Amino acid sequence: MKIRAATAVAVANCLAAQVVAAGLLDEQIPLSRPGNPKPSDRPNIIFVLTDDQDLHMDSLNYLPKIKERLIDQGTLYKRHYCTTAVCCPSRASIFTGKLAHNTNVTDLNPPYGGFPIFVKNGHNENYLPLWLQDAGYNTFYTGKMFNAHTVWNYDSPHLKGWNGSDFLLDPNTYDYWNATFQRNQNTPINHLGDYSTDVLAEKAYGFLDDAVSAKKPFFLGIAPIAPHSNVNSTVLNPVKGPDDDVPVSDDTFRVSIPRSAKRHEHLFPDAKVPRTDNFNPDVESGADWIRRQPKLTQENVEYNDRHYRGRLQALQSVDELVEGLVERLEQHGILDNTYIFYTTDNGYHIGQHRLPAGKECGYETDINVPLIIRGPGVPKGRISDSVTAHVDLAPTFLSLTGASLRADFDGTPIPLSEKEIELAPSTREHVNVEYWGWAISESNFGFNGGDDKRIYNNTYKALRVIGEDYNLYYSVWCTNEHELYEMNSDPGQLKNLLHKDEAVLAAQTTVLGYPLEKLIPRLDALLLVLKSCKGASCSQPWRSLHPHGNVVTLHDALSPRYDEFYEQQVRVEYSWCDSGYIVPAEGPQFEKDGVVYWEGSNWSDWT
Questions:
Q1: Do residues 383 and 508 share a domain?
Q2: What pTM, to 2 d.p., does this model score?
Q3: Among 17, 90, 418, 550, which has the highest number of CB atoms less than 10 A from its own CB?
Q4: How far apart are CA 106 and CA 84, in angstroms?
Q5: Considering 87, 361, 538, 577, which one is annotated as catalytic?
Q6: What's the pLDDT tens digit per position in 11-35?
């Protein structure tokens, strides 16, 4: 029987309703949340969001106060992922609980991203702080929110949902010693000569005092720029409005090594980027433009080490900020009823895969990021293998308030209790990763061994799948090149099993006892669902392929009974490369009007 999946085969809205009605999410991960607690019993939530912090270059090992106050007193989630490896799209996903293809905030600036596009796409009327206020919480925020949120457009309109706010604004967001903050409805104030993170800390402590004095449960977001590169702007053109092009990431910006407070400039004089196998490797790796990068020169490597030390030094003020928060929570007597979340918007690479300093890639350095949670019922000193993502944060915050979760969330609450964490590895295995547009060098050195600081062809879809006996990365580039890494044996992602150079190794590789020719169709079908999923189909994609629920993991899907079913599915491919989420460029889609159908056959025969 010949089967072909039509270009649209999803269950987004109807499946979400079925899953919620049937309690399937609760069956998979029992949530020990405070169900409709009294306002006086509801926990407070503090959310610390750094900028570009790495997990794979050991940044957490240089933060002793965070270790003592958060990691030792909470749980470190070592398999937490951002789903788009650049600032603004990642932050939009955090505050909406939706993947970038559903927010359609896919870049730092218009026409595809930034604050104006966040507003234009309706998210200013429908995102986390408004939901928290509806749940009876006071909300406060200080620091960086979005790119292209500027001294010229901050009031057109103001970001909604905050009882108190003090935002960092472009063009000075990343200027460590020349920050511009904008408080509530007031005009922006420049802080030339003051260190940005120290200014931010005092604002955060002030908001904490305000929150406590209001005698209501609260959410406090704190977003320092560290350890982002230092950026000095020469932008002079005042533009405003959701339809205007706000040039906050063009060549009028001068990018340099992150800057620390004066008291930290002497620290870590011998620190170097960890010399892992994928740091400036002797053999090229990856696909598309990454595979064409030449080996870094010694001068480049030495610059990378200086950049690395600047990042570690800049993070020291964040370390002190967190300690100050915990001390003040203790003084107010509310530490035991407060959850503290610590993460970053995206990861970072410096020299891995021969790349200059930057992000925007799908590799583990860029997408696998720190997540630490401390709070009531969270195990102390625990390291969790739970697979979680940024789209899970908003559902987690709402679940802690006792509010109902939204059916259009692409994520689900993060396991917090001991029981949830124990169950999670068998129920959470995948992360969808997506990116559109450019990659940028934040180094003095460019790409391809030259001075070019930008790569414009950096559009891809990727997938991380992690189970008890498998650990995989699969990607499809807009050029329709493919990558596959078996990361238990190749954690540095140096052996692309789908490249001709690795044909011998690929022929010898099996996953769960199956050869790659059986594995690839499963991964591709899963990616086809996730690249256009909505709601429950994002958190439970196997149910879109197998609605009867008899397949919930890759292990289940590899059963030989499904060989023909998967071999005849439409494959992921791009129609062309583009810089934003342009649906005709995206190739086959798995979703159409929320209706499931299989052209030419009865899909139930195969599920």
A1: no
A2: 0.91
A3: 90
A4: 8
A5: 87
A6: 233 333 333 333 333 333 333 344 4
